[in-house]
Write a structure and sequence with these properties.
Elements lengths: L5 E5 L9 E7 L2 E5 L7 H10 L7 E5 L5 H4 L2 H5 L6 E3 L2 H8 L2 H11 L1 H8 L10 E2 L6 E4 L2 E7 L8 E5 L4 E5 L28 H13 L4 E4 L3 E3 L2 H21 L6 H20 L5 H25 L3
Parallel strand pairs: 3-4, 4-5, 5-6, 10-11
Antiparallel strand pairs: 1-2, 2-3, 7-8, 8-9, 9-10, 11-12
Length: 309
């Protein structure tokens, strides 16, 4: 099996090649890393069948964090996996046992109709099926070591996974996003995710350092899947986090500052993408980035309100 038994699954959340779950297969056992929403659970189950695995072969469902594009389908999936443990940060476990607060906060953002369209049913997980690992704890998928390490910055309940067998890290949102449409002859293009409400630039820098400390051959992102050039992209992430914070501070005392931040982020990334060799036209780039830049601007705006110097 190629790629060390790591199979990306396109959840088709919002659009194709935007949100990935990953299936890890090893000696007849399996694990998922992030699961998307309940709307795509059949795709994950189909991936098991395609790789000659049964639902009973899944030992772990790793949730890097409980934001609903990563964890919304966990309750539905866990109902169908008789032997699996849900691996979730101690701060996130309560939201999997009782997702009512996650649902309510997301419905306030999206409205009920769009929420239902995007996320479907968000079901609870039985407490006895949940394992909350300590920072640095190792779990074995057969004899394959998966090391959990906490990474704040994007969310305080976030962790990443170092997979010793593939020398790779599964980073959730802690290493930003890298969309395949922006790949060029120079490689992948990375963008920080500064979503509300727990973005913390200092912790975001620390998370990148923790990931790069493992000298991974590859990093598997939720948005979207495998990237290499990990040391170079880590440096790019550090630079862009600083750029994003500087942009936010520039408009700290302005009216309609979120709108100003959004426009400046857009122009800054357009310039960076042109330097990277992106061949898409301006309208295509703006369309691809639209929703993520809105979320990033909102997170920076919230950080200014709560934490900025």
């Amino acid at each position: 099996m190629s790629n060390f038994g790591i199979i990306p699954i396109d959840t088709n959340f919002i659009r194709s090649k935007y949100n990935a779950s990953h299936l890890i297969c090893h000696d007849g056992k399996a694990a998922f890393v992030d699961v998307g929403t309940s709307n795509n659970i059949e795709l994950l189950e189909d991936a098991l069948t395609d790789n000659n695995l049964d639902k009973g072969d899944v030992e772990f469902v790793f949730l890097t964090h409980v934001h609903l594009d990563h964890a919304g389908g966990a309750g539905k999936l866990m109902q169908n996996l008789p032997n699996a443990k849900l691996i979730v940060h101690p701060y996130g476990a309560k939201h999997m046992i009782d997702p009512s607060k996650l649902i309510a906060s997301s419905e306030r953002v999206y409205g009920k109709n769009l929420f239902n369209q995007l996320f479907g049913d968000v079901l609870p997980v039985e407490e006895q099926k949940i394992l909350s690992p300590e920072d640095g704890q190792e779990l074995l998928l057969n004899n394959r070591t998966m090391r959990i390490f906490y990474t704040e910055g994007h969310a305080r309940h976030h962790y990443c996974i170092y997979d010793e067998y593939s020398k790779s890290v599964f980073s959730g949102d802690s290493f930003g996003m890298s969309l395949r449409e922006f790949d060029s002859k120079k490689g992948s293009f990375i963008i920080p995710i500064t979503a509300p409400t727990q973005f913390d630039p200092n912790e975001a820098h620390n998370a990148i350092d923790e990931i790069i400390k493992y000298q991974p051959d590859a990093i598997y992102l939720a948005h979207y899947s495998k990237i290499e050039q990990t040391e170079k992209l880590g440096s790019d992430m550090h630079d862009l986090i600083d750029d994003f914070v500087d942009i936010a501070l520039l408009y700290k005392n302005e009216g309609k500052r979120m709108e100003h931040i959004h426009k400046k982020l857009q122009s800054h990334l357009m310039h960076k993408l042109r330097s990277h060799g992106c061949i898409l036209d301006d309208a295509q780039i703006k369309n691809i980035l639209q929703s993520d830049l809105y979320v990033n601007a909102a997170g920076l705006d919230f950080w200014l309100t709560k934490h900025a110097p």
